[in-house]
Structures are given as structure tokens and as C-alpha cells.
Amino acid sequence: MEEIEISATTVEEAIEKAEAQLGVPRDRLEVEVVREGKAGLLGLGGRDAVIRVIPKPATEEAPPEVAEDEVIDVATDVLNDLLELLDVNGKVDLLSAEIPLAFDITGDDLGILIGRRGQTLASLEYITKLIVTRRLQSWVPLSVDVAGYRRRRYESLQKLALYLAEQVKSGRRSMNMEPMPADERRIVHLALADNPDVTTHSIGDGEERKVVVLLRQS
């Protein structure tokens, strides 16, 4: 894959955008910082950071390819095992058999699997990936949803991002969004990545990290 160039308010923000755009985790990306970002005085004179990114090539030590059917079977078994351990009655559905695999868990009273701000769901997906990777001895990208929560949440965030962009443009002032996990912040970054009038960056630490929408510097 050829390298891509990405700009954002900070280098960290640009790397987050690259992860989301390429669907590749940070440890599998080669990143070259072309230019560090610079904060302006009272919103003037700032400049975006620019990076060049390319996925790392496969090495001789890369794990062997795994048959698609085997990946699906193992991931489904892992999710069913986790549901049983959690004493949750749910059905695992395969939404997409193409990489990255996408699963959705359906049933009644599944809020416990979603948690506050989707944190439990994020943990469930992370644990599933770890177990599947260990069983197959191969890293396989996959996503886990519960009753379509993430799909609806992502669609809502995209609409909200576009709305805030218009508010920032008309009001000529930046706006902060609520704290959200990294995958949701990336949805916002991507939704506004090509917007000619505004840009985005993240502020805060840990669970309080949030996206700021602000005017793009000319």
C-alpha cells in the first residue's frame, strides 16, 4: 500500500486519523512526521501537523494465513463462551464475512454488555480479539456490536459532527464535544477530515478525553 499524508492539529491526532482511515493499529504503521503542529495566539497563526504514514510490510515472522471459515467459527465460539461466562442470554450474528469481520449480539436486556459510554462493549471486543488471536496464532481484525448500538451511535456522531461544523463556521468559535472513547473520536475526526472550514483535535486525558471542533487555519 502506498503512503498517505494526513494533517491534523497535532501529530497524535493525525496518527489517530491514520489508524481509522487505514483500519490498521498504530504498532503496524510507519509514521514520518513532516511537520509538527503549532498552536496560534487567540486562534491566529497556528498550523496543522502533517505526517506521512504507510502500513508496515509483512515479515518472515508473520503468522500464516487462516481460512475464513475457521476465523468465523473461532470468533463465534469465543463470543458464545464469553456470553455464557457472563450469564447473558444473547445470540451471536455474523454481519459481515469480509475482513474485518463484524458480529452483532442480539437479545433482550443486553445493556449490561454495552455499559457507560460503550465502555463494556469496547472491553468485550478487546478481549474477544485477544482470545481469537491466541487461538489462531494470527491477528484478525474484527468488530463486535450489541443490538446495533455502535452502528446507531456512529451514525449519530457523524450527524452531530456535521452539525457542530456548521455551528463553528457560523459562530466563528470552537466547540467541545462530550468525552468519548478513541473509536468514537475517530468517527468524528473522519467525518470532518475533508471539511474545508473546520478541523478537529482531542483534549483531556483518559476517560475525559474529548474532541474539539474549531476553525481551520488558512
SSE arrangement:
Elements: E1 4-8, H1 11-22, E2 29-35, E3 49-55, H2 68-85, E4 91-96, E5 101-106, H3 111-114, H4 119-136, E6 142-146, H5 149-171, E7 175-176, H6 182-191, E8 198-203, E9 210-215
Parallel strand pairs: 5-6
Antiparallel strand pairs: 1-3, 2-3, 4-5, 7-9, 8-9
Radius of gyration: 19 Å
How many individual domains? 2
Task: Tell me the series of helices and strands, N- to C-terminal.
Answer: EHEEHEEHHEHEHEE
Number of E-state strands = 9
Give structural attributes:
218 residues, alpha+beta, Ribosomal Protein S8, Chain: A, domain 1, GMP Synthetase, Chain A, domain 3, 2 domains, 3-stranded antiparallel beta sheet, 3-stranded mixed beta sheet, 6 helices, 39% helix
Entry summary:
With 218 residues, this protein is α+β, with helices and mostly antiparallel strands. It has six helices and nine strands.
